[in-house]
Structure formats: structure tokens, C-alpha cells
Design goal:
Layout: E1 14-16, E2 22-24, H1 25-31, H2 33-41, E3 49-51, H3 59-64, E4 81-85, E5 88-98, E6 104-112
Antiparallel strand pairs: 1-2, 3-4, 4-5, 5-6
Amino acid sequence: MENQELDAGPEAILSASADGEERSGEDRREANPENAYKRSIFSIPVEVHVTIGTARPTIAELLQMKRDSLIQLSSKIDDPVELYVGNRVIARGELIEADGGAGTIGVRLTEIVDMSEDTLK
């Protein structure tokens, strides 16, 4: 088989399979069901929770709350927030106003937690 140089990228480079049929790199990856399974995991949505602070009111204080009551949190307005997946902190960041002032908030990540040393329980 003759080597060809293509501008379309690595997925367009052809190679010969064992049966002599030419397949692109992407076709070879799709042919392996184990790889397709592994790639499908990346499309599973994950819910991320952002914690801005905590409070520990008593039950009596909770029962006295009504509209416009204030719950004071343990953190300051400029303190970093924590991002959780399940019960694990995965990152920290700062709250920002997203979408150019449309009233929505976002989190600018400032730290990604290194979970390489974590063990599965």
C-alpha cells in the first residue's frame, strides 16, 4: 500500500486491515466494541454541586424562619467556593457573574483537586 499525505487530519489516513480492506483510523476505533464502551462513559452527565458556605441553625431557629429571614453562612463573600461530585471536592473557584451581566452566576476555577492519591472505597 502506498503512503498518502492528507490535509484532513489523522482520522482520514487510511491503512490496510487484516482482510485487505482499507479503513480510516476512526473506523478502526469504532470496530473495537471495548473502545466504544470506554468512550461512551465520557458522555454520561455528572451533577456538580457548588458549596458557598454552611450554617448550623437550631431546630427552633429553623421553625421561626419566614420569608426574608437571613441565614448567616460560615464564609465571607470573597472566600473560594468548593465544587463537589458526590461527596468529593473536585475543584475550588470564585463566583463570577456570567453572561455579561444577565444575572446568572458561574464559577471560575482556581484550583483542581489532585485525586490521584485517593483510593476507591
